[in-house]
Specification:
Elements (H helix, E strand, L loop, with lengths): L1 H8 L2 E4 L2 E4 L9 E8 L2 E8 L8 E6 L2 E3 L3 E3 L6 E9 L2 H5 L13
Parallel strand pairs: 4-8
Antiparallel strand pairs: 1-2, 2-7, 3-4, 5-6, 5-8
């Protein structure tokens, strides 16, 4: 049950030495923090939900560097602490808001 909650709700899974982050939380949650141990490393995961969505990863950073994916490759033989920050929301909306053109006008 514990593992089901961590993997299905918090969306934190270790797959083939990689950390996959894909939360599915209640929209009322502002976010959460978790600590994950991978080998000699501690990974501090901070999830922020400013748009009050249930799922969808808008941005992911590892130690301050933006990542293109929410799948994070970590070296289990490394030591120390890593910081992962995830912002929930729509990746398309957070990066490039859609432009409205004349063909997009809705008539009532």
């Amino acid at each position: 049950m514990w593992r089901l909650g961590i993997e299905a709700i918090l969306g934190l899974r270790v797959e083939d030495g990689q950390l996959r982050i894909d939360p599915c939380i209640p929209p009322t949650w502002k976010g959460f923090e978790a600590w994950i141990r991978m080998g000699e490393q501690s990974v501090h995961v901070v999830i922020e939900n400013p748009d009050h969505v249930a799922s969808g990863v808008a941005t992911t950073t590892l130690d301050g560097a933006k990542l293109d994916s929410s799948l994070i490759l970590l070296d289990p033989s490394a030591r120390g602490t890593r910081e992962v920050h995830v912002r929930l929301g729509s990746p398309a909306r957070s990066a490039n808001p859609p432009k409205r053109g004349a063909q997009d006008v809705v008539r009532a």
